[in-house]
Each structure stands twice: as C-alpha cells, then as structure tokens.
Amino acid sequence: MNPSQARVLPKLDTSAGHTFIQPTKRINEGQDVTEFLTSKAYVDIMTFLLQLNRSLFPTKLSDGQVQTWSLNSEAVEYSAPVRQLQQLLSKLEAILDEAPPDTGPRRFGNVSFRKWYEIVESRAADLLEECLSSEILQRPSSKPGGSTAGVELLAYFLGSWGSPQRLDYGTGHELSFLAFLAGIWKLHGFPENSPGVEERAIVLGVIQPYLELVRTIIKRYTLEPAGSHGVWGLDDHSFIPYIFGAAQLAPALSDTDPVPEEGSLPDAPAPGGVAKANVVQRERQDNLYFSAIGFIYDVKRGPFWEHSPILYDISGIQAGWAKINKGMIKMYNAEVLSKFPVVQHFSFGSLFSWERDPNAVATVATTHTTAATRRPDQNAPSAPQPAGPGMRAPWASTKASGPSTNLPRGAPSGLPDTSRLPPGPMAPMRAPWATTQPGEPAPAGDSKSGHVPTKAPWAK
What we know:
single chain
C-alpha cells in the first residue's frame, strides 16, 4: 500500500444527518469477540492507532536533516484543542487531593479510588464542557429525541480511568481513552493540518500526559492490573506506549516512504538498554517506550528478566526498533483487541459501531477469542521446567500471521493463541543461570549473567 494513500480515520460528514446513541455493552461472551473483529469499531480503532503510529516516526526534512519527535520536542505544535485536553487532565489530577488514600492496611486496591472516581463521574459532564467546544458536545442527532455527541464521548471518557468496582486498571481502559480521542477526531474536534502534525500533538501532548496521570493513580491507590497475564503479559497496565515509543526510535520517513519494517535511528539506544537502569533513567524523559519501562522500574523489584520476561525477550531483537514497532502492533491486535477479558467492557454507539464493516474478512472463533472466563495461568503445570535455548514465548505460534500494519480489515486467522500455556515448559526464555554457548554473541541487555533472550513470537 502506498503510504501517501495511508488511511486516515474518517470524520463525520457535517452535511449529512447522524444519529447518536448511548454506547452499550455488546461483548457478553467469547464468541462476540469474533463479531467485534469484523465491526466498523474495530477498523476505526486500528486505523486511528496506525495513523498516530506513523506520525511518531522521525521525519526526513527537505534539507536532508532528520527531525525526531521526543517527548520534550520543541518542534511539536500543540493546537488549542490539545491544550484544552491537557487542562482537562490537570483538573483530574487536582481531584486526587480530594480523595486521599485510605490509611488502613491494604496491599492492592485502595478503596479511596472509588471516591476519586465518584467525584470525577459527578463532574465529568461539566469538565468536558469546559475543555471541549459546544459544537462537538452538543451536536444533536438527526433523529428527534436522540442523544448528543457528548453522551458518546462521556462513556469513553469515564471508561478510561479504571474500574471503581474491581479497583483495577488495564489495557481495556487505555483502549477507552484511545476511543475518546478518536471520537473527538471523528467529530472534527482537532484542526485540519498537514499529515502527522496533529497526530503527533495528540500522542505527545495528550496520550503521554494521560499515561503519566494513570501511573500516578495506580501508585496512589495501588490499583490491580486488569485482564493481566501476569508474568506472561507485556505489561501489567499499558500497551500503546510501547508501540509509539518504538516508532520514535525507528528510521526516518518522508511523506511518501513506506513504514520501515527493520532498522533504527543511527543514534537510538539499543533495545537491550531496557535491562539497564541507568539507560532507562536517561531515556525515559524522551521516549514513550522507555517511559513505560521506567514505570516498571518504579514499582517492581528484582531482575528485569524475571518480572518482565516478555519485554526482556523482545529486548534481544537485532533487527531494530522498526521491527519491534511492527511486532508490537501485531501483538496489540492479538493481546488486546482479540481478548475477551480486555474488550468485554468496551461499549458501542454510533461513533464506534457494532455494525459489520463491509470489507471485513470473516473470522473463525478459536479458543483464543472465546476464552471468556479462563485465566491465562489456569491449568498451568505446578513444576515448570527450564526452557531450551530456542524456545519461543509460550503463546507464540509458528504459523501466526499478524494483521497488516497498513489497513485492518478484520482479524486474520492464525493469530497467536494466548489463552493457553503449553503442557510442558513454562519459562518463556532460557533460565537466568544459563550461560552462552561457545561462539554465541553476548546477549543484549545482560552481559553479566550471560542470559540469551529468546525470540519474540514475531521476530525473525
């Protein structure tokens, strides 16, 4: 696909009528996930994600220079809507002072989170009115008595902050915030601009501050991971910073270049740097990937390979950050959008429609998509055995073929099955005490232990 024709999330036709509806839950059992993967909502979400992703790749300038897009880049232009969303996040952060953590003994899930959420919920409509234009929020339905656009946006906004019932936060809530921003995009809430300009501002000016606020909330109220695979998951709470952060370190693009599948910026830190605390501390101020890794260092103790084996596994990729970026997009499709425990709480209205996309490819229900109640560690063997040197991550499939990173049209069959662990070895990589074989290269990220990370499921 020619990148100059790369899809952009379509906006609503202002000249045509539109009926807004209260978003409702549609994914009630595992079988419904296959319907979601052929819906217009799925296509819109993936289109918006890929649109944002491309904007974070470094840019080739006309004079031959390369413009990178770090978290503190002065070259990023923040529009008025982006700055208004930043104010919204600041107001949410200020509400934290009104709900101090409960002082009683509790390891996970401080009950004061419920108070914070109740305050936010009670003020949400007013907060959105203060930070979004009335033309967006009060846009009426063409159908008499119908809802306004603000009703739909409010549902995704409130779904972005974790569950007050379960006292948890995870990638499903992160997905809801992505939908909130995509809904504003569809409602013409961001100005028309050159390709990539507004998208970069959304990621660096809104999504990154959102992630920082969420991390503050998680630490303040010790929220549990939602829908987590535990040690078998990429991250307890987030996913999209790994996609965007890898893009920031990938090779530069011109407007007409295809998105590269391999390589890195010449001066990019090595992926193995995630296992070195000093490298993470240095890079987390500029890069979304390392910022997310830095949060892991903030809340977890022990060797990185032990508490984050999948991320450590990925750190051994030799083909560069573009390869990691591509793999992360495939993994997001498989581990977030295709998982019942994650997407079951997503709601569907008119902006993100349950209606089938006319170009969607029919999908076949698998254990992967229908595992509605089973936890990923269920039926796991009680005595894990050390893995061999070439073992892939436990959910890898040699026949897996991730979705196109150009245009999503339904979920492909053959996605990695992550609902089950293998009957034999549990470890996703060589045991930490294993040493390199004669002639093997030194491992990326842990030269002292001699540990060689195995390939990620999409690495070649």
